[in-house]
Design goal:
Length: 318
């Protein structure tokens, strides 16, 4: 594993912006909840050598690679195999009861996208798996498509992929399944979606993109755990601490935006209710009301950064 590490070209998204936002945490504890290959952690520790980083990742393969890549900085890092949503438990077990900085990059890593075994990408013919953590005892994408009802498949693809042809795709999946040809590989599914979804001229995005996104989100329970993570993280921040989150699609960004607004005291009750019943209480301040996007230069250097959005908040005095 260590011999392969130098071959990986890893460009952390919005690196400089993250480092700048974490300046208030330069002498404290910073939790990198989605370590990946360690690009953000490296940038933070090179700028703030007095900081201590708790580095979490749910992918054991990525965690081992990151350990190799960060070996020169390892004295300042505690590596943890866990899901980012378990931040509260992770810190409690480390007897850490407050953090000066917390960061989460919700994108899928290049290694996962480019893996011919993981089943995240339709560029390779691979088993339809899509688990971020291969050791997790959860249904794979193939399991879902083999067992869910047609309506459930359609709803899943529409809800998590915002795919307006979801019913047509679900109908074809079930038809193939009933004919003894269940979806087992990425190539099977990508070809099926291509037949079901009309492709417009000059369309740059593959027709299967939204369906694959929907299955990945469902397999890894990504959206359902996001709001809980945001609330737990804001509670774990010390006064003046910073929480920064990078999202890559509108569903994630909407959850982050709405949760941050609620934590910043914005009432979400219907206008006609005379007294607030949603329990909105101001515990944070928004650092940026509009998301921070990558510069044109970064997008040219790293095309995968194009859809990234960064939102950040700071904790108020308790």
């Amino acid at each position: 594993m260590g011999s392969r590490t130098p071959e990986i070209r890893h460009i952390p998204v919005l690196r400089d912006e993250i480092v700048t936002l974490l300046e208030p945490a330069k002498n404290g504890i910073i939790v990198d909840c989605t370590l990946g290959f360690g690009g953000h952690t490296r940038a933070v520790l090179e700028r703030y050598p007095n900081a201590k980083v708790v580095a979490i990742d749910q992918d054991p393969a990525a965690l081992e690679i990151a350990k190799d890549r960060l070996i020169d900085l390892s004295k300042g890092i505690t590596f943890i195999h866990s899901n980012f949503s378990d931040i509260k438990t992770v810190l409690s077990e480390l007897e850490i009861f407050g953090a000066e900085g917390i960061i989460a990059d919700l994108g899928v890593s290049s290694m996962q996208l480019d893996s011919e075994e993981r089943g995240f990408s339709f560029r390779f013919d691979a088993p339809l798996d899509m688990r971020m953590d291969f050791s997790a005892d959860v249904p794979t994408a193939a399991d879902l498509l083999a067992n869910l009802e047609e309506t459930e498949i359609a709803n899943l693809i529409y809800k998590y992929g915002e795919e307006r042809h979801s019913r047509k795709i679900a109908r074809r999946i079930v038809r193939e399944r009933e004919a003894g040809r269940p979806m087992k590989t990425t190539k099977q599914l990508a070809e099926l979606v291509a037949r079901a979804v009309p492709r417009r001229k000059h369309q740059s995005i593959d027709p299967a993109t939204k369906t694959f996104q929907a299955l990945r989100i469902k397999v890894n329970n990504e959206l359902d755990i996001l709001e809980r993570f945001l609330i737990d993280s804001s509670n774990l921040l010390v006064a003046g601490g910073v929480l920064a989150v990078i999202t890559f699609h509108s569903l994630e960004d909407r959850i982050v935006k709405n949760t941050f607004q609620r934590l910043a005291g914005k009432c979400i009750c219907p206008p006609k209710i005379p007294v607030c019943a949603c329990g909105a209480k101001k515990t944070i301040d928004l650092i940026n009301r509009k998301p921070i996007a990558p510069t044109e230069a970064e997008q040219l250097e790293n095309p995968r950064s194009r859809s990234a959005k960064l939102r950040a908040v700071t904790k108020l005095e308790n």
